[in-house]
Structures are given as C-alpha cells and as structure tokens.
Amino acid sequence: MDHELTLRVDGAEHRLSVDPRTSLLDALRQRLGNTSPKKGCDHGQCGSCTVLVDGVRVLACLTLAVTRDGSEVVTADGLSAGPPGSGGDHPLHRAFIDEDAFQCGYCTPGQVCSAAGMLDEFARGRPSVVTGDLGADPELDDAEIAERMSGNLCRCGAYPGIRAAVARVGREREGTR
Amino acid sequence: MTEMLEHRAIGADLPRRDGAEKVRGTARYADESPAERPAYCRIVQAPLARGRITGVDPAVAEASGGVLAVLTPRSPGGRGAAEQLADTSDAEYAILQDDEVHFRGQVVAVVVAETFEQARHAADLVEVTYDEQPGDTLFSAERNDLYRPEQVESGDPPDSSEGDVDAALEAGPVRIRHTYTTPMLHNNPMEPHATTALWEPDGHGGAGSLTLWDSTQSVHAVGTTVSGVLGLDPEQVRVVCPYVGGGFGSKGIPHQNVVTAGMAARAVPGRPVRLPLTRQQTFSLAGYRPPTVQRVALAADADGRLTAIANDVVEQTSRVKEFAEQTVLPARTMYAAPNRRTSTRLAALDVPIPSWMRAPGECPGMFAPEVAMDELAHELGVDPIVLRERNEPETDPDSGLPFSSRNVLACLHRGAERFGWAGRDPRPGERVHGGWRWGTGVAASVYPTSRMPVSEAEITRVDGRYVARIGAADLGTGTWTALVQIAADALEVAVDEVDVLIGDTDHPEASVAGGSTGINTWGSTLVAAAQEFRKRFGDTPADGDSARAGVPPNDAAERYAMSAYGAQFAEVAVHADTGEIRVPRLYGTFAVGRVVNPRMARSQLVGGMTMGLGMALHENSLFDPRTGHVVNHDLAEYHVPTQADVADLRADWIDEHDPHVNAMGTKGIGEIGIVGTAAAVANAVWHATGTRVRDLPVTLDAVL
Asked: CB within 10 Å: which end of chain B, N or C, has fewer?
C-alpha cells in the first residue's frame, strides 16, 4: 500500500505517494526525476547517493522515503550560495571544476554534498577520529579532510583534487568568519 | 615522419567542457536518460557454478503486482520463453537460449515490471530448478589440463623463445627464479553497468527500431553486437552514450546486460525498459581481470647485464568463452637479454567470463618482472635504477625495430630527483622510527602506443561554428574537451569556435575507448577530416559545408616500436607492531608524448596510480571454489582505495616529442598509470621490512 508524503527538494515542494519499500534515492531519481544523486551500490557503501536532509549529509539509498515526510532535501543540483534551489553556483561547484576534482562525474554530486555537510560539521567543531586535541578547534588539514571524506569512494582516483577543492572552500569560509 | 600539428590549443590547461553538468549531477548517465513511463528490468542469476536448468516456473512472479513480462530460457521452454537469438556464436551473448549453466551468476530469467521495487520483488519469485553438477572452479598452476591458447587478447602469439634461457640460467652467475601471483580483480566503475532500452515496432519503416542508452566505451561496438545477436539490421539499432560513469575496460566489450536489456525491451514493445545492474551483479556479468601465476626467471652477469629473461604465465579463463590476458608481453620488450622466453597457459574453468581491466596484460605482466628486477638489484648489490640503465635496449628486443622514442631512463632519473632517491640506503629493514618501518621502492611502467584501424569523423560549418561529429566516448577521460583542442588546432581556429559531438551511433563510427587508443585514433581522424574540410572549402567556408574522413593508417608503426614509459617511486611505512601498511608518498613520472590537456592528463595518471595502489594493497576478489562465487562482491568488502588511503600521490611527465606516433604527438595515457605501481609498492615494502612479498595484494599478515 502506497504512502503519501511531502518532500521539499532543492527548494520545491512535492507531494507524492510511494511504495513503503522505496528508498529516498529511488524516490528522488525515479519518482521526482532528480538524478543528481547517483546509485553506485544501493547499500550505503560508496557515498554516490549523498544528499543533505535537513542540513545533514545522508545516504539516500539507506533511507526509506516514508521516514522523511516533511523533510528538506538538497542535492548537488540544488546546492547554491543562497537558499536551496535558488540557482547559481555554490563555491564547491567552482572549486571542484577548478581543481579537476572528478573525471567520470558519477560520484561527484555525492562528493559535493558530502563536502558541504562535512564543512558544516567541521565549522560546528565536531571532531573526527584523526583530530588530535579534542579540546581545541580542529584544523582543516589534509588528514582531516581525507578522513571526513572517506565515505565517498571515487574509482577514477580524483582524491587529491577533491581534497584541494574542499580545503579551498574551507579556507574561504574561515576567512569570512 | 608524420606531419605534426602546430600546437596552440593542444597543451592548453582548459577546464572540462562537461564540468558544470557533472558537479551539479545534471549530466545524464544511461539509467537517467529521458524516458516516458519507464519499466524496470531485473535479472535472475544462477546460484550454482555448473548444471542444467530442469524447470522454470514464472507463475508466481507473473501474478505479482506490476509484472509485465518474465523471460525464461528457451529450453526447457514453456511460458515466457525468450526470443530465439539470431547469432549465438559468441557464447557470452547466448542469453536464455538453452538449459546449460556455465557459471554462477549467469542470467537464467529476466523480469520486467512497472516499478523498480516490483521488478526486484518478482525476480525473487521466479522458481528455477536445477540438476547441479560439480563445478570445476579451482584455479591452480598445477592443474594437468592447462592449455596453450592460439593467441593472447592482443593478437600476439602466446609463447615466444629466443636463445636458450635454461642454459643461461645454468651459467648464471646471478639468478632470480620465483613465482609471483596476482589475484582476480574487478574494475568496479562507480556507475554500475546500465542500459535504458526502447523497442519501437513501427520504427525504421515498420521493421522496428531499438534505441539503447547504454553505459559503454564504444557505442558502435554495442550497436554492432546487439544488432547481430538480435538479427537486426545495424540501421535498426541506435546507441546513445554521452557520459560514462567510469569503465576501466569493463564497458569496452559489450557484456550480457546490454543484450538482456534489448531482449527485455522487445518483450514490452513501446515501453522504455531500464536495466541497471546491481553492484553485486557486476561481479559475475561485467568481466574482471583474471588471476595469474607468473614464474619469472632472470640471469645476469656480475656487472648486472641480463643474460636471460623468462616469464611463464598460467592464468584463468572461463570454459564458456576464452579470454587470454596478454600478461607475457612486457617480458618480451622491456629489457635487453640475448636469451628470452615467455609462455601462456590457461585453465578453463566454470567461472564468470574474464575481460578487459585497465592495462590488461601489461598491468599484471609488469608486476612480476619489476619485482624480480628489484630482487636482482639486491642480489647484485646495485641500485635498481642503475640495473635498469645497464639493461636498456637499443632496439625493441621483441621486434628488432628502433623505438619511436623511449624515455624510461629519463623518467627514472627525473622521478628519482623529485622523489629524493639519491643516497638511499639499499639495506632492507633498517629504518624504524615512530613505531613504523620505512622503505622506498621503484618500478618502471610501459604501455604500447597504438591506433585503431577504423574511425570516421565529419566536420560541418554550422551557424559560423565548426561542428565535428564522431561516435567517441568520454569515460571521464576528458574526450569532450580534448577532441575540441585537437580539432581547433587541426582547423587552425580557436577552441571556442569548435564543438565536437560524441557518444551516439548517429555520428560517424568511432573505435572503442580502450587500449589507450582513444585520443590517438579519434584525434588522427579529426585531423584528417579537418584537412579534407580545408582542402575542399578553404578558410572561408559557407554554412552547411561538410567533409568526412577516415582514420589514416600509420605507416611508421611498421618501422618503429612505439610505447609510453614511466617510473614510479613509492615510500611506505609498515607499522612495527600491527603490520599496517601505509603509502605516504607515491610519485609517478611518465613519458607519454604530447599532453593534450595537462589537468586532465594529470587526473588520469593519478587515477591509474591510485588503482595501482589498490592492486598493491587492497583489491582482491575472493573467489570461493566450492560455490563459484566472489564472496566479497560489493564495495564494503572489495576494497578500492578510499580518500584516506591516498596521501601524497603525484604524477608528472617529461617533455617528450615523438614525430612518429601521430599528428598530435600523443601516446595515450589512460592505462600507463596503473602499470608498475604495485611493483613499486611491493619493492618498498621489502625495503621497509626485509620481507619479499610476491603475491598480491600485500597485506599485513605477510609482513608480521
């Protein structure tokens, strides 16, 4: 039996009725036609499906759509410098292009969303497993970025470019704080 | 000598033309192609390595919600039997044609339903019964049924022999004789193989037309294969693929999934059908690098000059279709020695069909010899780079031809300088600090430079711009951008006056994006088309003026041996207590001819090295011979390198001008990055620990 729910996706509100077995990823891709998040494994192992749900990075393939009724979902396509879906580039979009932080592009929207979520977690002082001093504000160095971005696989091996892109946006953000 | 293009756009550090779409996720991949009311297809796979299907009952699945069709094998026949295929000469494509099970994971039924969830559920409800037979699945070099293939995949002979290797080994005075192994490996592009297929019975003048939006390294190969198998005129099949979410060889030869998608679409005329393989399904249906056992023998005089090189290779193929990886090739060409021997023997097993994986042959075939060279250097007490200097051939040892350019030593020297190799303490297991044992290692890289025989391009003046069309592919390699740079130089105009359209069989036929031949072939084709265009229309063409040309043959290939080369340097740290292996530094320096676009070239080389790092330390398809099953068939258990595994990993190149390869001066860069990487890491692990590991991947249990 299908379930009714409301999702706000990239700034636009959608009412839809879904099979309770439908993942948030399939709801976005197959029901709403938003194919920005990708399906690389469907098992929460690769990170290609990463989106922001209510501001937090989430694996859309491991999330049942019916559990997110009323949520705000932002994909890499909706990510922008302003409100979700308001158009224009987010600094991460530019940085990924400038640092050639991708090749085939399939993991890229997930990387971009994950980076946005991760920079926010970092800004709020959340430590990671490689953070040395839990009492001090962590520094956004290569090791921190690598650790915090390791849930997003890239088979093309664009990791150095991804680190450079995330570091650049992180530094810009720190400069404006 | 080839007439060289004047380089203006070639060499420019331009961003990717498809960058904006890719970072937002709006670039459309095969499973995302526009489709009205798509249905979903799900494959049912055989759960045994060998046997006979005794019955298929689709009744429960058919009664399940939303099911549109269930395709079953023609034998035992009955309801839902699949269509009879026109050409089953390639057993890989003989899908649902008989009751034989050749390997675990083979397609035994196909479900089409209204939704993804319904198809997935119904696939579980198809009842298939089997007469199971004992599967012959155990790969071993000791088997007594090994055979010699007629040729290896590259078309070269399986064996070679010159001089007397055994006598040279007897004479010594320095000998290395060891067995090295590489495991079964899976390509695992991030986008699993996927197709959207639409059969329109009224299309093509009533004969029917099939459109396949497929994730492929060659739209034309898919079109040719599928039309042949289904008995259609090639004109009836159109294949579209603007973007590929990685391939690494696994999307080079069409596999069962795309033929299955075509059959499913024909079962529901007028409905587009989406068939995305699951990650798990790709492990049995999309090819893999077969495991190899390599017996390498080197003999040298006291000065370190090789007197003999041998690599006797045993590797796996499937019983249903032969795939003979060309692992033997590097030992034939890399170093000079008067006595040389290679051999290829295959074990044909009830296993999934192997296929191309990044640098098939050269990649595993450089691991064993490059570790053996490191062992020889230690035995002789010479630096590994010096050993390679002493064995640098003047002409290609295999063909006797001069090299069009060979800069492996330049790469070793430049790389050594960047890496800080000078003054290295050669003793193994001597450097412990911070609880870690430190070491460094080096290995060489090689990958042949070639051009495919068939490709065609068309250039047309449209609205004051130049629009080139060629059915090429961009796997993330940068084709969308690099071909514009080449076409612009060939037409002697700026890049912003040029568009190049790729990825569609409606464009002129292009060769596969494989064997590092893409830019060499398509670029040469565009140059020929540009010359034809200028010859006919001059510098002031009118709108609509159009010219075509095919790829010119390269006569120089008969006079010169052509390859790209490289040198890779690894620094490893092995934890003294746990054996954990890290690679803090991995530097590669390459000689790849002219680089068309530096940022994209660097990304490809770094990507190849990263995959090589995975081969060195992480990747291993664990095949269970009892069940014929790769037990770690997902990305949680098949470990590709993650962000945190890759530390200071860099690639650069020397300035190389080769006037013989093609008009651009390019050699191809997609594959050389993975060649030699695993040997460099394994050699560094030995230097750190004193433990020589000859079996990949190098894991902590081997060094504790």
From this structure: N
